[in-house]
Design brief:
Layout (H helix, E strand, L loop, with lengths): L1 H15 L5 H12 L8 H14 L4 H10 L26 H5 L3
Length: 103
Amino acid sequence: NMGQELVKYMHGVAKVEYVIPVALRTLIVEWLSAKDVARLGVFELLKVATAARRLGLEIPELEAHVNLVLPYEDRGKNAFGIGRRTTAPKRRRKSARKRKWTW
């Protein structure tokens, strides 16, 4: 299904912040502006809407449909969440013998 493939593509592209070529960008906007957005489920709709916002695509029809399906969903500028925390660098513990001789 074209809709499911587009959801997967946009979700993956938004994660790595890939810059989409202009021709492909216009095709995505045309597809998401069509009535085919109504066929998407709730989770796919949220994935596409979040990906579109991260990629800088302004699609008022998509946002209107999200607000229709989920009227109480907070979709502000800072609604992306905290994101991933950076992991602390792994440090190996010094052995007792090495700690004994450091002053």
